[in-house]
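User: I'm curious whether this sequence folds into something compact or stays loose and floppy. Could you predict its structure so I can see for myself?
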Amino acid sequence: MTATLIPEPSSTLDPDAAAPAGTQTLMRGLAVVQAVSDGARDLKEICARIGVARSTTHRLASCLVQERYLRSLPGVGYVLGPKLIELGFQAREAFPMATLARPYLDSLAELTGDTIHLAVRDNDDVLYLEKIPGKKGLEMRSRVGHRMPLAATGVGKALLLDTEEPQWKALHRIGAPVSSRAPGGRQTWEAFRERMREYAANGYAFDLEDNEPSIRCVAAPVRDASSGIVAAISVSSTVPYMSLERMREMVAVVQGAAAGISAELGWKVERA
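Assistant: Here's the prediction. I'll summarize afterward.
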């Protein structure tokens, strides 16, 4: 299975693209903001990136500074301004995680036919925000609003990929994988640590019947503009439908969906 669910990157703003009368100034202003976001720090570099005369670029930049969309810092040049931070937080609040993620979760459900989860960390637990039941007639105990130990679930492990080993150990002590059919039964800390090291190195996590007998899942982290992990998604099914070979094939698919959601939250795919 090679399909991914990463959205195509948006095209670069062209301030002189065919646009209705009266919008060219707006498009040029947005192009200035984008240029600064991409690292342009002075008028010369901004002009080179957007292809607009220096005098026009200066007027646009000055207006953007006045309205707090840009800042002009001595010795640094132009940087993004506090107004964009305010708007970013407002945009994030206006579209809750589950709302932003839902199209990607639906696509993943349609592609796989399996149960799909979206979850966040809540102290030492996983909190499920969304669940799309699979089409294969199986039922899992997870549900929206339900909590489970981080260390005992696939999404929980994915949420922990950036954390340090002492925290892994503490969370393993609180809620180690419990299923007698998990690798090593009630898994030792040493076995859990080795699995987490592999997952952290490769950006995914497996649930190998850790939480429920015969349930396996493939999970991946969701990141925001800071590159921090803010959520995780997973594809879950029973052992007959989720062989180890299929799990390995599913890693890229689940990571692709997670990358799509991450892009909606401001994460840049090229940082991966």
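Summary: The longest strand covers residues 229-238. The beta strands are 70-73, 77-80, 115-122, 125-132, 147-149, 205-208, 215-223, 229-238.
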